[in-house]
Amino acid sequence: MRKLFSFEGCVSPLVYALAAPVLLLSQNLVVALCYRWRGVALQVDAWFWLLPLRHLARMPGVTATQAATVFALAFVTAWGLAALSFRRANWSGRGHKLSLFAVFPVLQIVVVMLLGAMPRRHSEPEGGRGGAVDLADVLQGVLAGIAIIVTAVLISALTLGAYGWGLFVATPFVVGMTTGYIVNRRTPQTGARTMAHVLAAGALGGLALLMFALEGFMCIALVAPLGLAAAALGGAFGRAIALFGHHSNRPLMSVAILPALFALEASMPPAPPIDTVESIDIAAAPEAVWQAITSEAPIGLSPGLPALAGLAYPVRSSLEGEGVGATRRGVFSTGTAVERVTEWKPGRVLAFTVLSQPPAMKEMSPYRHLNTPHLTGYVVTGDTRYVLLPLRNGGTRLTLKAQTVLRIDPIAYWEPIARIAFHLNVRRVLNSAKIEAEGQRVE
C-alpha cells in the first residue's frame, strides 16, 4: 500500500495501462455504491464517467458526512494516481510535471491517456536523475499542500461546521510550511522558487476544492488574499526549518493540531452582530412611502455587485395579513425568507423578525449542488425595521435598520466584506421605495 503512494521507482507502460484505469473507475464505483445503498436510481450518462462526484453532489438526501467520506476517498485515489503517473514518467524520462494534474477530476483522464502513450526517452533527461528526485520533492510538496487544504475543509467545514481562524489562517499557514519544508529538505530552493511552489499548492488546492464540489468559485476568490498571505508566511517558515538542517519531518506533524483547533472553534463559534442603518429622503407623504414598502411590486433596480458575486439580494416581498403577527415573505435571489411582523404602525413603523432564510449566496461551480454548509446559517438576519419620519417639506425620511449576525472568523477580515454587501442591498431597497413612492417606478 505504501508503494502505491510513493514517487520512487518506475512503472512500465503495461502496468500503468492496467492500474491507472482501475484507480480512475474506483471513483465511479464508490458513487454507484452510494446510490445503491440509498436506493436511488443512478443515471449513467457522460457526466457520470467524466465527473462522478457531480452525481454524488446531486444525490437526494446525501449528508455532509457521507459526502466528506467519499470526497476523502476520491482524493486518496487521486494521490495514488498522481504517484503512479510520476513513476510512469520516470520510466519514460519525461512528463513528470504532467503527473501533478492526475489529482483533478476530468484532467485525470487526459493525463492517463498522454502518459500511457508517452514513449521512452533514451537520452538522459535534463538535470539527470537528481533533477527527477528534486521534481519529486516539489510535486510531493505541492500535493501535500493540496491534501491538507482538502482534508481541512472536509473536517472543519463539512464535518464540524467551523469556519474560522483554523480553516482560513492556520490551515494555509500549515500548507505553506509543509510545502516550503518538503521542497527544500534535500535540495535548497531560492525564496522566490519556494514561494512559487507554495502559491501553486494554494492555487491548486483551491482548484481541487472546486473540482471536488467542496467549495464554489466566489468563496475561494473571497478567501484567497487571506489564505495566500498566510501560506506565504508559512512557506518562508518551512524553508527556514529545512535550510537550518532540521530533517526529522517534525514540521509535518504540525498538521495534527488542526483538527483540535477546528473542534475548539466549532464549540465556540463567533456571533458578533452587525447593524446596518441607512436613510433616504423621499419626496412623498408617509402614506405613499408606507404603500411602497408594503407593496408586492418587484424591485426593478439592478442588483449590481451582489449579483455578480453570487450573493443573495432581495427581489420582492409580500404580506399575508396586516398587523403584528402577520407573515411577510421576502423573496431573494437564492430563495424565500419567512418573516413575522413584530411592529405595525401604518405610516410610521414596520418591523419584522426573520424566522427562516434562504442561503446567503449561490455558488459558481460546475456542479448543480455543493456540499458547503456556510451557504446556510452563517450569515443570519435577525430584526429589520422601517421607520418613516415626516419632514417639514411634506416629504418622508425612510430609515431601514437591519441586524445581522456573522458566524465566520476572522471577523476583522469578513466583516468589511459583509458590510459592503449589506449596504448595497439596503440602498437598493430604499432607492426602489423612493422611486415607487414618488410615482417613478422602473418597469
Strand order of the largest sheet: 1-7-6-5-4-3-2
- SSE pattern: HHHHHHHHHHHEHHEEEEEEH
Number of domains: 2
Overall pLDDT? 83
User: Which quaternary structure do these chains form?
Assistant: single chain
What is the overall silhouette? elongated
User: Which structural class matches the secondary elements?
Assistant: alpha+beta
Radius of gyration: 27 Å
Roughly how many Å apart are the termini? 65 Å
Quick one: how many beta strands? 7
Residue runs with pLDDT of under 50 for 5 or more positions: 125-131
Fraction in helix: 40-55%
Report the biggest beta sheet as strand number plus sense, adding barrel if it closes.
Answer: 7 strands, antiparallel
Written overview of the protein:
The protein is of the alpha+beta class and 443 residues long. The chain has 2 domains: 2-267, no CATH class; 273-437, START domain (Alpha-D-Glucose-1,6-Bisphosphate, Chain A, domain 4). It is built from 14 helices and 7 strands. It has a 7-stranded antiparallel β-sheet with strand order 1-7-6-5-4-3-2, covered by helices on one side. A hairpin with a 6-residue loop joins strand 2 (314-320) and strand 3. Helix 1 packs antiparallel against helix 4 and helix 8 runs antiparallel to helix 11. The longest helix has 32 residues, at 128-159.
